Amino acid sequence: METMNRIPRKGNQGVLFRYFSDTPIQGVSVAGTFNSWNPEKYAMTEVSNNRWELEIGIPKGRHLYKIVVNGDRWILDPLNPNVSEDGQNNSAMTVMEDGEVFIRTNEVSERNPGFMYENYQALESPEWIKNAVIYELHIRAFTENGFRGLTEKIGYFKELGINVLWLMPFQEVGQEKRIGTYGDPYAVKDFYSIDSRFGTAEELKFFISEAHRNGIRVIMDWVMNRGSVDHLLTKSHPEFFTRKDNNEVYYEVPNREYFAGLNFDNGEMRSYIIDAMKYWLAGFDFDGFRLDDSDITPHDFLAEIRQELSKVKRSIALISQSYDEFHHIDSCDLTYDGNPRILINAIREGNITQNEFIRIYDSYKYSFPKGALRMSWLEEKEQSRIRDYFGERLTTPAATLLMTMEGIPFLMMGQEFNERTYADWTSLFHEYRLAWEPFDKDMFEHYRFLIHLRTNSPAFWRGELEFIRHSEPNVISYMRRSGDEAYLLLVNLSDRAAYPVFADDDRTREWIGKKQEIIYRTGKEEAREQDRNGGRLLHPYETLIYKVTAG
């Protein structure tokens, strides 16, 4: 359930935080999305021996945070059981419009939905984003020939089945305080610019038009909240940026000295940003934006962006780099969901079984607004490769879950062939190229089959998901169906053979009595049924997909 009896909770003057220490400490603070992760901004007060408290006003929305002890030890909030699905081990809470604080627990379910699910409906998104498989790339890392090289790769994307490309920033990067040869690609010096090393405006327009001609949408990565510290406007319009007492521009997020933060209190700045986004939308025919670090952007500005950009292109889609339920109400089509990576690893480590997997999955599904679309990921720009995270053999069943469960699947460049060298986005500060060799052909073919199955079968992107419980703790099985179309999937996440025996109940008997045809399996054994005690053989890490029809 969601509860207000936990800490943090609504206090008399805002959100109440508490921390209890077993030993004497010098100080405690709270840092999170509500204060740009600044550990110096909100210090707790010691109210009694080793008991610390803080009350602060926090805007509505889902907030991630950590407790900071003695200025340098960042820890989960021991009093908050909700750990976020961002893969960075943060505590999470949702502050409502009236200041109440809701903490998600695994008791949230279809029968016991959360407040947001019961009371809010997600905004209506364009049909194309519902059927999307999104692929993120950085141009220099992906191809040596810039926009022309991307145009030459359209055949590769079509073969794989990708229908949405997300281009990481390609604008000019600031020089001041730059790290590495090329600097952080998100330290944009001019929102209207193109780094000439990637090509020309005409070459970018041609790439987008060719992508569209081949049924591929293109999304632009937009840097919210900041520009480079030497952004061209820091001199002409310093009031657009956050400034210290000495009038020097700065960015409040720690360890980002090469950025200058945007001043959202300045209406002229907001208009400038929206006009720049319209320039790319109208002039280049981008289909939408991915909004970087939008979890620290004011809600009203996100809603304003949506409203204004929709006047230019009604079918626009906005992806929020956040885990915020409220972003689905009036601004963004997708929020992030890193649960596939987290839950699969939890099974690998023996911390959960299929029953807990289902409970946690449902607790998130029914704590977001009805109809909310989440962008599901195994890898993203700030995380390591999954082959390094939980082993190469598990990457195959993990891909099955990503592509066939609910949510909009997202791939990081190279993920489809188990690329080995990408670490995180800081790789892009330097002379970096994807390593196309060795190329895991089996993994590529696995993704290719699953992507084409998903995009061509409404059951996977429009239909319902129903888990089918059974006897094997490390096997996940579920039905996907839409109208008369139905599929049964069995995915073995363990290193041993499994023989799942399904529960004898009405729901199981409903599909067990129907005709089932194996349309795909990843095991190397002969494709035939092998039973034991009524269970169906699944080899280690194997995927089985059945098409289920009446009769």
UniProtKB/TrEMBL annotation:
Q: Which residues form the Glycosyl hydrolase family 13 catalytic domain?
A: 136-454
One Pfam family from the record? AMPK1_CBM
A GO term, aspect molecular function: hydrolase activity
| Keywords of this entry | Hydrolase
Q: Which residues cross the membrane?
A: none
> Could you identify this protein by its name?
Alpha-amylase family glycosyl hydrolase
Q: What is the protein's species of origin?
A: Cohnella suwonensis
